[in-house]
Amino acid sequence: MTQAASIASFDTGYSADSTEFCPFKDHTQYLAVGTYQLTDEQEANVRIRKGKTYLFDVTQPLIPQQTIETPAVLDMKWSHALVNDKQVLGIADAQGGVHLYGFNENTLEKVDHVQATDDPSTLCLSLDWASRLNKTDGRIVTSHSNGTVNILTPTESGYVVGEDWHAHDLEAWIAAFDYWNTNVVYSGADDGLFKGWDVRDPSTPTFVYKRHMMGVTTMQSNPNKEHVLATGSYDETIYIWDTRSMRAPVQTCQTPGGGIWRLKWHPTNENRLLSASMHAGAFVVDLKQDEEPMVSTSFLDHTSMAYGADWSFADTSLVASCSFYDHCMHLWKAAD
């Protein structure tokens, strides 16, 4: 296993919890970093959580090109298809809202906002776009601290809340589309349950599993190989599933401690996975058929919980990861 060294770092001030590289060819040098700060201020008996989203050009010295102030950021994802002719970043916030920012040349401007829940004390914990492979499907799935999951649907006048259902009895940490069949959504929560849903009728889950021993925090459909899904948990375990037969995972990888907060498939390599592993750091896992999964690269420079990590779409060995209480973002390279 190779231990990567930091190429560059930036102190984000507020606690950093999300890093996302832009996937569009003319903007792949841009990296968004989201932050979260719980303040002592109150509004309607709810403590205010502030956030900043930084936009970096990673080909330049690590100085933000832009800083956007929002409520605290819990998750961010770029759409892989244009939204009204713009390259758009979706931001899930601590007031149950989703903000959409689109590129206007080399800066981001707000293009939409939708309140995914009416209760300002409910956090929007995650979001995912249906458009990773299906460029004609502009829907967004969000999950919330009250256990609900909903689908945000584009209309001529902007995004609106479409399907909305109570998916879990505890915090729904994650929801994600099956990129190969965007009528299918997966969710995971603090109850340790991993569920599947057909969004055309989400009244009953298509499956419910409790394979993970602790809360399910992350999942992602493999954009390079159909029927492959990765899930991760506070229990430090990554499971790889064949979505055609979900009774048991087809591969298991125990990460080097820390719990797992985010998993990201490599942009082009169907067998490579990035893990933001909270207390332990960030890791690159190589998965090969008929072989044990192997951690090929570790990044251990974070001195606090590594919550965010993402691959560059330009230099696909480049990784950005960020950590919470030490409010730091690092760039580093995965081993070949």
Automatic annotation (TrEMBL):
Reactions listed under catalytic activity = diphthine methyl ester-[translation elongation factor 2] + H2O = diphthine-[translation elongation factor 2] + methanol + H(+)
Q: Which InterPro entries match?
A: Diphthine_MTase (IPR052415), WD40/YVTN_repeat-like_dom_sf (IPR015943), WD40_repeat_CS (IPR019775), WD40_repeat_dom_sf (IPR036322), WD40_rpt (IPR001680)
Q: Which UniProt keywords apply?
A: Hydrolase, Repeat, WD repeat
Which cellular components does GO assign to this protein? cytoplasm
The catalytic activity of this protein is classed by the Enzyme Commission as: 3.1.1.97
Name any one GO molecular function.
diphthine methylesterase activity
The WD repeats are found at: 209-251
**What Pfam families does its record include?**
WD40
Record bears the keyword Hydrolase: yes
Keyword flag Magnesium? no
Similarity section = Belongs to the DPH7 family.
Name this protein carries in UniProt: methylated diphthine methylhydrolase
